[in-house]
Design a protein that fits this description.
There is one protein chain. The longest helix has 8 residues, at 88-95. This protein has helices spanning 13-18, 34-40, 88-95, and strands spanning 28-29, 44-45, 50-54, 57-61, 64-65, 82-85. Helices cover 21% and strands 20% of the residues. A hairpin with a 2-residue loop joins strand 3 and strand 4. It has a 4-stranded antiparallel β-sheet, with helices on one face. It has a two-stranded antiparallel sheet with strand order 2-5. With 99 residues, the chain is of the alpha+beta class. The chain contains 3 helices and 6 strands; from the N terminus they run αβαβββββα. It has a single domain (16-95), classed as Small protein B (Small Protein B, Chain: A, Beta Barrel). It starts with 12 loop residues before the first helix and ends with a helix. The protein is globular.
């Protein structure tokens, strides 16, 4: 099976309409099990999502990933906090600190 690694899975177009975007960051995300397959099917939404920095790590809250239909009985909460993978320098810049 071919997977396009450069495919944008979710995008918040409304944010560009409602806010002035000054900087963009590309981040990885820590997922569990069937969440990966659900994202490959583009069954996710970041509308009403927000990020918080806690203990030098950044998390996204209220990101909805629909449960994968073929996951069986074990399902993850669809709106659980998920860790974003950014370089420490980028996180420090977001905090307003210099390294």
């Amino acid at each position: 099976m071919f997977v396009d690694v450069n495919k944008i899975v979710v995008n918040n177009r409304k944010a560009y309409h409602d806010y002035e975007i000054l900087e963009e960051y590309e981040a990885g995300i820590v997922l569990k099990g069937a969440e990966v397959k659900s994202l490959r099917e583009s069954k996710a939404s970041i509308q009403d999502s927000f990020c918080k920095i806690q203990n030098g790590e950044i998390f996204i809250y209220n990101m909805h990933i629909a449960p994968y239909e073929h996951a069986g009985s074990f399902k993850y909460p669809s709106k659980r906090p998920r860790k974003l993978l950014l370089h420490k320098k980028e996180i420090n810049r977001l905090l307003g600190r210099t390294t």
